[in-house]
Amino acid sequence: MTIPVADLRNDIRFLFGNEEHSLRDIDPQMTVLNWLRLSARKTGTKEGCGEGDCGACTVVLGEPDGKGSMRYRTVNACIQFMPTLDGKQLLTVEHLKSDGGNLHPVQQAMVDTHGSQCGFCTPGFVMSLYQLWLDGGEDDRGAINDALAGNLCRCTGYGPIIEAARKAGGISAKDPVEQKRRVDISARLNAMVDDAPMLALETPVGRYFAPRSSDALADLLVAHPDATVLAGGTDVGLWVTKMLKRLDPIIYIGDVADLKSVREQGGVLTIGAGVTYSDAHDALGLIAADVGELVRRIGSRQIRNAGTVGGNIANGSPIGDTPPALIALGARIVLRMGNVRREVALEDFFVTYGKQDRARGEFVQSVIVPKPTAGTQFKAYKISKRFDQDITAVLAAFSIRVEDGKVTEFRAAFGGMAGTPMRAKQCEAAVIGQDWDEASLTLAQQALSRDFAPMSDMRASKEYRMLVAQNLLTKLYIETTVPEIATRLVGREAAYV
Ligand SMILES: Cc1cc2nc3c(=O)[nH]c(=O)nc-3n(C[C@H](O)[C@H](O)[C@H](O)COP(=O)(O)OP(=O)(O)OC[C@H]3O[C@@H](n4cnc5c(N)ncnc54)[C@H](O)[C@@H]3O)c2cc1C
Ligand code: FES
Ligand code: FES
Per the database record, which ranges form the FAD-binding PCMH-type domain (predicted)? Predict the structure, then answer.
């Protein structure tokens, strides 16, 4: 495909604080963190891990909310590529400085509560607190924990920082000055990129395209079938920062408007491949509470603000959190190449470790998730060493229907037990048609060892994986037969709903 030159734009346009920036000839895979520290010389934002884990590099990104105002989200600058800033506002700890030299309320609260010692993590925490403040503030401990789970502090301890979050409060959504500021910023950003053609950087070190529609994306991928599709970059960013890969070309899907919708119709949810975890969370939580809870525990707030459900599927990881849950729910995905679309059951998309049913030039367009029918129970359990910000060792998701004491439907899907997310078909067959009792539970547990031969790695041994998977069947059994028995850690501040 040849895109008319008049339809291309070769500069990134964004607001850095309130300053308009237009950058040309920038390396498309330069990270926001490197640009801040090495080019803009704004060194308040720190580098810790360089892989999205520690939060030292947390910045706030603002983008027009489509309703004439702005919305603000934290992201990890270390794994965001510079061109993804196009049409957005980048805010760093430097922008919290006021003209009179006073500290911002979140900074003052950190001082008042002694929330900083060596200070290395502090700018990152301050930006997470700032995002909470922009959203009106938070008093609830669980919500504060969720907002801060992606920021690690090795010396102060979290108590004072959580206290700072409470003390800082937040700006009122009704504050007229703030409302006007957001309307003005949104209008400026829209004017900067709205009528400008598609961003297409062709630099000596690599190319980067940011189509605005699925049609343009489909054409681009046919023309560049080996391009790297970039969504939230929470995997792809690490290929650059940790594996030192050169990616050329990159096709970014974060500006494709029609991939960013979540629609519910007739009990079926359709999630565009560009929808972030944060934006999918509420809708998935309505499909089944445990899916919402799973999504809440993915990575951190910063990761959920960037990473997409589509990326979690497309990367084919055996330990991605959403695929087992979506498979147990009977989800399907729509793939598109050029003008040809096809729909496949999600479980069939994962062929074997590292191989998915996706041709060169094809992309994941959306995922279709049916809501469990009345009377069907859905449970999902993530086992990891830490509650927050941790990769899964084993994930189990079950959809079960019991009528007159007999199991009439049962779908069991696991992550971390094989080279792909996978259904446990022998386990399912062992209980369908049986009474849902301890005898069939034992049969289901025995069948699991015929379904899977898990591996040992640094997260868990194969013996542990099998045992925990079998124990999760026991948990399912207890929760579906004696629901009054407490099986979750609610009350120990581990699982806020
Ligand atoms: C600190 C940290 C914590 C994490 N925690 C978790 C966790 O708890 N649970 C979990 O499951 N994952 C976790 N991840 C992994 C990651 O967040 C997810 O896999 C995420 O869903 C990837 O989505 P993305 O939008 O960032 O994808 P990207 O990184 O942009 O892309 C991932 C892969 O999918 C391809 N791709 C993306 N979208 C499409 C599309 N529409 N069509 C075709 N190909 C596409 C890309 O080319 C690439 O191969 C974590 C990652 C980090 C860095
Ligand atoms: S430097 Fe650790 S999350 Fe970015
Ligand atoms: S204050 Fe030292 S790491 Fe947090």
Answer: 201-374
Pairing mode, if any, of strands 228-230 and 250-252? Answer: parallel
Quick one: pLDDT at residue 6? 57
Parallel/antiparallel/unpaired status of strands 250-252 and 206-210: parallel
Q: Are 63 and 89 in contact (CB under 8 A)?
A: yes
Walk me through the domains of the chain, giving residue ranges and CATH numbers: 13-194 (3.10.20.30), 257-370 (3.30.465.10), 376-481 (3.30.390.50)
The helix (H) or strand (E) run that includes residue 350 is: strand 350-352
208 alpha carbon – ligand 2 mean position (Å) = 24
Query: In terms of Cα–Cα distance, which of 249, 208, 278 is closest to 61?
Result: 278
Per-residue model confidence (pLDDT) at position 2: 54
Helices 122-134 + 105-112 axis angle, to 10:
130
Residue 248 CA to ligand 2 center (angstroms) comes to 24
Q: 10 Å Cβ neighbour count for 178?
A: 15
> Is residue 152 within 6 Å of ligand 2 at its C-beta?
no
pLDDT in tens, 3-26: 555 568 899 999 999 999 999 989
Q: Does residue 154 have its Cβ closer than 6 Å to ligand 3? A: yes
Residues 6+ positions from 341 with CB-CB distance below 8 Å = 334, 335, 365
